[in-house]
Amino acid sequence: MVTSPKRVEFVQLALPLRTDKLKLLVVIVLFLLVAVSDPGMSSDSIDRVVAVVNQDIITESELRQEVAQTQRELRAKGQAIPPLADLKVNLLESMIVHLIQIQRIEFLNIKVADEMVMAVVNDIARNNQLSLTQLQVEIERSGLGFEEYVEDIRDQIAIRRLVNQEVARKITVTDQEIDEFLIQNRDTLPKRPTELDLAHILIAVPADAIEEDIAIRENRIRRIQDEISDGLAFSDAAMLYSDSPDGPEGGRLGWRLNADLPALFVTAVSELEVGMVSSVIRSPRGFHIVQLLNRRGGEENLVEQSRVRHILLVPNVVSGETQIRQRLERIRQRILAGAPFSEMAKLHSQDQQSRARGGDLGWLSPGDRDGEFEKVASELAVGEISTVVQTGAGFHLLQLDARRTRNMSARIKRSHARQQVRTRKVNEKYEEWLGEIRDIAYIEYRVAQDDL
């Protein structure tokens, strides 16, 4: 992926030249011009430019790197690798579209703070039951540098913000569209998904372990399983023996949707009663045993709702992230000093829909807002003001007004329908928007497809 494209720069030196030196210089310049423009020259001697995209270029070495990385990823997933010629053409097009989006991000001065990037990287590690160091090892084992991986995450976050700003924010879903979706999909709408509260113990097996080492580790987890059967608390066993980062917390994974858990875990606990421990599970990471702490789901959807107000500020070309954070912090201090949150929202919030209501978003159910927004709101006490919160929409201050529990079966179905319709409309508009920004970009292919 092109994260730091090379730029073409020309430097002119105004120096007096003798005639003979001038002739020599002309010969050198002509040679260089021929060398750069001749696609037949060896790629070992010159890194050819394969495409020009506005003010940036994509080189042959960058394309080769992208091809190699994609081939590694496909092999790791056990998927078929397309013919090399087709793969190069498709990846070059993807790189061009990616680069155009990065250029748009730079033009709009969309910045992603290091803290935000590392928070996402840490979430990825945690969701894969890895420490940050273990994640780095896995990334580098796949052939990708960890710093490059982190910058790729930064690009993905920035593109998500760009799409939210340029596309998603402009999408609306009407009640009529929701009603039509519910009618057309009444037989396929999901019930409330099952959630599981699990704890696990991992005995890690290195990727290059020999059979003898694997057998030793399998025996170790079976001994742990026996100790638990004899009365050792699962949480104590996790703290004593588990190689997982959550071992010190008793191996607790917390409540997660089935879809967010490894399929091996879901299958292993499918027939268990609450409190029971699974048989030994073998995964690419090693050997596991899992305890089912609780299970919930079904038709009745008791949901805890939050009544939240917010003040939203969005970075732009004039005011970057730092200025927006500072401005919100000043507003927060005024609120803490006694200014009503609702009045500050009416004066400052850039959310046009809630601004007139003093920032009141109404009763929010899980899934209604960005994950970070919900996380912060869920941790607030009634009446408490949050610190500055960053989401895909911008930067917020939150105030929790109240909480309540409601049976939301009907509303959850409508919320699911709304999300499905919105996702479809955003995807359609995103493809249209990509075509528009690509059409106005200057794109020059320097190498024919057959010569890539």
Automatic annotation (TrEMBL):
GO terms for molecular function: peptide binding; peptidyl-prolyl cis-trans isomerase activity; unfolded protein binding. The keyword Cytoplasm does not apply. Gene3D superfamilies: 3.10.50.40, Porin chaperone SurA, peptide-binding domain. The keyword Isomerase applies. One of its GO terms (cellular component) is outer membrane-bounded periplasmic space. Signal peptide: none annotated. It holds the Pfam family SurA_N. One of its GO terms (biological process) is Gram-negative-bacterium-type cell outer membrane assembly. Keywords: Chaperone, Isomerase, Periplasm, Repeat, Rotamase, Signal. InterPro entries: OMP_Chaperone_SurA, PPIase_dom_sf, PPIase_PpiC, PPIase_SurA, SurA_N, Trigger_fact/SurA_dom_sf. Residues 193-294, 303-402 form the PpiC domain. HAMAP family: Chaperone_SurA (MF_01183). This is PpiC domain-containing protein. It comes from marine metagenome.
